[in-house]
Specification:
single chain; alpha/beta; Rossmann fold; Arc Repressor Mutant, subunit A; 2 domains; five-stranded antiparallel β-sheet; 13 strands; elongated
Length: 232
């Protein structure tokens, strides 16, 4: 599941990205309202964590923009505790409101409560690449051989890479998109790091990692996932 975090505090962005990644989510980060709207339009996250006091566009502006095309849950994470701010955010289209400082346990509980409202089939499909099956609900991978399933273990980061590729099946996913989505914008130049994870994934799911059939490299641009099918 993709969660967009929009906040102008880099420490909060980093802390929430690390926390959500450890919980198995794919975390996108935006440092201002305009960047949040661009990421929301291009990536269509399943859930949003939005601060109100951001530059360029306020959190209220971002909520209005998101509600122009999406019904995904929006959780406002703000230092403003006044009832007027809460009413304005909820009237704009937010689903919940949590005030800074907050406990991580409470934040995760609110995220779980909001995600329970998501359509299960749309948010968590099962897909396959040849005889490799991916269950996005349980974040599990298995290989079907002679009618039997053998589990394939992916690390949390490997799973994040696969999740992004699966949700963009057949489309070019740029290296910058993968690096920014998983490690943050400060790692956008770390292409060697990304190649290492792609290599590890190919060893686990490709019959011949040196001649990949599924994870295809687009030279100088990024990667494309081919032959993705609905597993039903």
């Amino acid at each position: 599941m993709i969660i967009l975090i929009a906040d102008d505090d880099p420490q909060i962005l980093r802390a929430l990205r690390i926390t959500l990644t450890a919980e198995g989510y794919t975390a996108l980060t935006a440092r201002n309202g305009a960047q949040a709207v661009r990421l929301a339009a291009s990536r269509r996250p399943s859930l949003y964590l939005i601060d109100l006091g951001m530059p360029q566009l306020t959190g209220i502006d971002v909520i209005h923009a998101i509600r122009g095309w999406s019904d995904a849950p929006i959780l406002v994470v703000s230092g403003r505790s006044g009832s007027a701010d809460k009413v304005q955010a909820l009237d704009a289209g937010a689903d919940d409101y949590i005030t800074k400082p907050f406990s991580i346990d409470e934040l995760l509980a609110r995220i779980r409560a909001l995600t329970r409202r998501l359509p299960h089939a749309e948010a968590m499909p099962s897909v396959r690449l040849g005889n490799i099956h991916f269950n996005l609900a349980t974040r599990s991978v298995s290989r079907k051989t002679a009618g039997r399933f053998e589990q394939i273990r992916l690390t949390p980061t490997e799973w994040q890479v696969m999740d992004i590729l699966i949700r963009n099946g057949g489309k070019l996913v740029t290296r910058q998109m993968l690096l920014t989505s998983i490690w943050g914008s400060e790692h956008v130049e770390d292409t060697g790091y990304l190649r290492l994870y792609i290599s590890q994934l190919r060893k686990k799911i490709e019959a011949d990692p040196h001649r990949p059939r599924f994870i295809i490299t687009e030279p100088g641009m990024g990667y494309r996932l081919e032959h993705l099918e609905d597993a039903g």
